[in-house]
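[job 4471] stage=fold_predict status=RUNNING
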Amino acid sequence: MGFSFEPVGQVHSCFREKFAIPRQPRLAPASTAVIELLPPYDQVEATEGLESSSHIWILFVFHAAPSGEAHLRVRPPRLGGNLKIGVFASRATHRPNSIGQSVVKLDAVQPGRLLISGHDLLHGTPVLDIKPYVPYVDSVANATNTLASSAPALIEVQWTPQALIQARDHASRLGQPVVELVEQCLAQDPKPAYQQPGPDRQYGAMFWDFNVTWHYPSGDRISVLALSSALA
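[job 4471] inference complete, writing structure tokens
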């Protein structure tokens, strides 16, 4: 038995590559995106009443991640990137079917599009469905998960004076909380957990239309070095 689905929308996101995207939604409240609804769901009838919800569920396609039966077991970053567990015990992007789900904040409902924040969606992500978050059934007060009982510890993020000036310039140009977003994403320490980089090794990730470069001057601290245009 097979099924086929057509997207109802597409995500225009601040995250332009997979690296440094928060590993769970809501860990970077400053992240913003627009869900562009596709015909016929771009008509106002499709979103009528959705403005009554503060948050929504997004069902989407992991369009940039491998999937299939080869991924019966995965290495979650939460467990250090070395320990394998069953795919159904994790939220890894490598799935039997490339389907993900995230709960995000709904900031505005506009004709043909939704403005969201606090998300973990890559630019260009196809959206399969949108559902309202219903607190009395979607929030389980006594739920437990011993593999992920609390939010991951954060790492300190510092800025070089030049990088902070560049970030504020981009924030003014885009009208987006650039400083807050970069800090929230990097504080989750996006590098693979098994890596122990020296201060000379640099990392980078693309947000909107610029690249962020950072390094680890010490094992428990990140220093943002520069923000440079990705269009140069």
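[job 4471] summary: Residues 44 and 110 are 8 Å apart (CA to CA).
[job 4471] exit 0
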